[in-house]
Amino acid sequence: MEFGGAPVVSLPIGEIEAYRADIAHLQAGTLRMPALVAAIFGERVAESIGPAFIGYSDVKHFKSVSSGATRRLTPQDEKTVDMLRAACAVKEWEHGGSEFRPSAMVGAFSGQELAALASYELWGEQIAHIAVVTHPAFRGQGFATIAVSTLTEMVLERTLLPQYRTLETNVASIALARRIGFAEYATSLAIRFAPTQPRRKLPDGLRLSFF
Q1: C-alpha torsion 79→126→179→2, nearest 10
Q2: What is the maximal distance between C-alpha atoms in the chain?
Q3: CA 123 to chain centre
Q4: Cβ distance 143 to 133 under 8 Å?
Q5: What is the pLDDT of residues 70-112, one digit of tens each?
Q6: Dihedral sign (CA 196, 50, 153, 146)
Q7: So where are the chain's domains?
C-alpha cells in the first residue's frame, strides 16, 4: 500500500527476509507499475490485483444521495438476492456480492426487482468494508450510488468506519465513491502467491526501473 510515499509491504511470515533487499528499492508511484512489482516475486505470482483506490468517509464528509428506492434488507429478501446473484456473472458477484447477511445489506429497487445490492463486511472492530453489485439490466442508472449511500449512512450510525475499495481502472466506481464523500486514502496492490517455487535472482538492471 502507498500513502503518498514509498509503499508499505506486508508479506507472509517467513517470507520477509527473502525479499527485503528488493522491496527496499520500491519508491512512491511504483504500485501503478504492477508488472515491475510482480517481477520481484517471479514465479511466485499467481495473480496481481490492482492498483486499487482505497477511500474512507465520515460523518463530516459524507454526502447522502439516498432515495425512496433503497431500503435495508430483511431475512425475507433472501430469494430476491439469489435472483440478483443468478443474473450476474460469477466474477462480478465475487467482486461485489456477498453471502446473505441482511443486517449488513441495503438494496436499491426498481419496482419489486433488486437493481443493486450494497453490503459490508466488518474488518477487525472498526472498518466496514463495502461491496456493491448491480443487476446487468440496471447499470448506469444510479442504483449502485444510492445503495452505497444508504449503506454508508447505516455504517456511520453504527459508529463504524466505511471503507471503499475499487480498481483504479474502474473510473465509474471511483466517481461513485467521490460523489458521496469518500476521500482517497491510499493505493493498494495485492499479489497472490502460487505454491512455493525456487526463487530466481533479479537482474541488477531491473532494480533501477523502480526509480
Answers
A1: -120
A2: 61
A3: 13
A4: no
A5: 999 999 999 999 999 999 999 999 989 999 999 999 999 999 9
A6: negative
A7: 1-49+187-197, 58-181
Q: What is the C-alpha separation between 123 and 42, in angstroms, rounded?
A: 30
Pick the CATH number of 58-181 from 2.20.25.10, 3.40.50.2000, 3.40.630.30, 1.10.10.10: 3.40.630.30
Q: Is 55 exposed, middle or buried (0-12, 13-18, 19+ CB in 10 A)?
A: buried
In the predicted structure, residue 114 carries a pLDDT above the cut 50: yes
Grouping H, G, I as helix, E, B as strand and the rest as coil, residue 180 is coil
Residue linked to cell 430476491: 80
pLDDT for 205 equals 40
Average pLDDT, the chain: 90
The grid cell for 36 is 515491475
| Amino acid in the structure at residue 92 | E
pTM for the complete prediction? 0.84
Measured distance CA(178)–CA(47) in Å, rounded: 28
- Distance (Å, rounded) from C-alpha 96 to C-alpha 118? 8
pLDDT above 50 for 208: no
pLDDT of res. 36? 87
Q: What's the rounded mean pLDDT across residues 155-162?
A: 98
The cell for 138 is 440496471
